[in-house]
Every structure is written in structure tokens, then in C-alpha cells.
Amino acid sequence: MTWQEVLKTGTARLKACGIEEAGQDAWILLEEYGQIDRAHYFLEQTEEMPGELKAQYEQAIEKRAQRIPVQQIIGRQEFCGLNFCVNEHVLIPRQDTECLVEEVLRKIKPGNFVLDVCTGSGCIIISIQKLMKDRCHCFATDISEEALKVARKNAEQLNADVTFWKGDLFESVDGRFDCIVSNPPYIESEVIQGLEPEVREHEPILALDGKEDGLFFYRKIVKEAKNYLQPGGWLLFEIGYLQGSAVTSLLEECGYQNITVKKDLAGLDRIVLASLKK
Fold first, then answer.
1. Where in the numbering of this chain does the Methyltransferase small domain appear (predicted)?
2. CB 264 within 8 A of CB 270
3. What is the reported pLDDT for 52?
């Protein structure tokens, strides 16, 4: 089969499985497992695809047909211009979360101490460290040892100086910070079964499930963060697009100030930030 025929067959296989981005996903896998870029593909599309590469590609297509996310198949996802390793133990970084990193960068200064709670792949704290050009002190915590293995690998590969602690939220945290950031689990438990199979079957439930009303971890972090923030320090969250008012109320009840809800690129509520009174 030619390159063109193989790509067409792969796209059709994914479309038959109900995958909306079938063409895009089929191309990403061809680029990865066919070891080809678009320029060379257009030059060689009518030539025979080498058998070994074709077999690897078809195996990848079958994994995607099982609704395994493309990012887990190829083992990486771009975030804030950096490539992060991902697997089934961590949430795949989303573009919406880049808005959270941008807000942190607006609040911190060189020399500040920053803590990322529920770090997962480490994409938030590592991006902060790299975009700050190593001029801040970065720490992160997660309850999952498997997630921390991925985060540590990403920090090593990206040459980011981040200290990782294993623990439930602040359980292993030591010291006070100028900024605490978190993208905690925030999906209501009963909603998870209605998510796309790529999410509910292949991403870690531990990183998704925000318990009955989706606010379980916000309540805990809002309350406990006061013991770890410097006076005047900032607490920033990613939220579900319907959770702005609820998280704002939690912050108000705990005495935070300068509470602000920010929108993502789609115009939906995505970030809530507040400062601790001095």
C-alpha cells in the first residue's frame, strides 16, 4: 500500500469508531510511526510505505480505535511550548490549563517560592520554572507515586529544578510560599461515567473525581493553604466552567481577598485567584 492509501485506511478505521478528529489523529500517528513529516509525505505519498513502518502504524491505529488517547500512544503532549511525557497515570495536559500558568506568571516575582498541589505530570510547575528562567523556587506535591515518577522524569528531561513531595495535598509540605497553584480533581463523581471513553477509561480517576459536588478538593485546599501561604501570597485554581461562583464563595468564607474569576480562550470561567490578607 502507498503512504496515501495507508493514511486513508487509518482515517476510515478511526471514523468508523466514532472518533471526531479521525483525520487529525490518523496523521499524528502516521507522522510518529511512519517517521515522516508533511513535506516528505507529499513527495512520497504515491510510493509504497515500508512494511515495518506500516505494521507499527497499524498497531497504533488499533490502539486509537480502542479509544486510547493519541497522547498516551505517542507518550507525550505539548504544553506551554514544552514537550511533556504522559501515560495512563497522569492527566493529559490541556491547553486551557496554560491560562493558569499565565496567571501565576503575572503574580510571582524572581526569588518567589511556588507550590503546585496535585501536580500530576508536573506540567504546571515545570512550565512556571522554565518560563521564569529558573528564577523562582519551585515545589510540587501529589498523592500518586506513579504520577510523581512521570513528573520527575519531565523535570529531568526539561532540566527544571523542582522539588517533589509525595502526600495528600499538604501532608508532606514544609515551609511557606508566595504562590500556591492547583488544578485539582473537580468533576462530579456522577458525571464521570458520561465523559468520553478516552477520559473515563484511560485517564486516572484519581485526577478527575472531585467527589459528590466536584468541590471536595477546593474546600480542603482553600482551608489548608492559609497555613502555607505568606501574608499577601496568592492562591490560584483551575476550575470547571460552572464552578466560579462556588469556589469564590469558599474563598470569601475563609477570608481571602482580591478574589477574581478569569476566563479561558473560549470565554468560559477557568481560573479563580485570591490573595491571603497581610
1. 97-189
2. yes
3. 95
134 labeled binding residue: no
**Spatial distance between the Cα atoms of 135 and 113, rounded to a whole number of angstroms:** 10
Residues of the chain with pLDDT under 50: none
Residue 218, annotated as binding a ligand: no
Residue 72 lies in a domain: no
Query: Do 82 and 56 share a structural domain?
Result: no
DSSP string over 57-99: HHHHHHHHHTT--HHHHHTEEEETTEEEE--TTSPPP-GGGHH
Residue 197 annotated as binding?
no
Q: Give the domain extent around 50.
A: 3-66
Give residue-wise pLDDT tens across range 119-144: 999 999 999 999 999 899 999 999 99
Q: Do 38 and 131 fall within a single domain?
A: no
Please tell me whether 183 is known to bind a ligand: yes
Per-residue pLDDT of 258-267, as tens digits, reads 999 999 989 9
Binding residue per annotation — 87? no
Q: Give the global pTM.
A: 0.93
